[in-house]
Design goal:
Helix content is about 35%, strand content about 10%. It is mainly alpha-helical and about 150 residues long.
Length: about 150
Amino acid sequence: MLFRSETGSAYVERDDPPVREAIGRVRAAGGVTSLAHPTRLNQPYAAREEQLISGWAAAGLDALEVWHTDQDEADERRYSEIAARCGLLRTGGSDYHGDHTPGILPGVGNGRLCVPPAVLDDLRRLAAGRAQLSPQSGLDSAVGQRPNGLLRG
């Protein structure tokens, strides 16, 4: 496969900015930041994992992915509690990527995933507030909605 993994023949190494810098860039542009796949931090100690997340929250991280296909109910509880302690919104996603993720379906993952609709409402409220503060906000135009929630005509 050409692009499917870091071992694909067309894979190109990239330089990612440090997490705090990335958070700053996104927020400066009026965006909302969420740490996806926190189980993939691969921290053997829960305290160290929470310390990392807490530090990023202090740097401006907005949300933590609580619901994800790779996370079980215990993970969901743990990440929900961490989000609450750190003052973060909760997000979720199936991690569906088309044919690259067989057995994963959009919105339901492997069948167990259920992200509450209020999660999107919370993100929209935060994004709407940012859009009013930043003329560079891209979420409003990216989802085709005005900050007041009305669809563009």
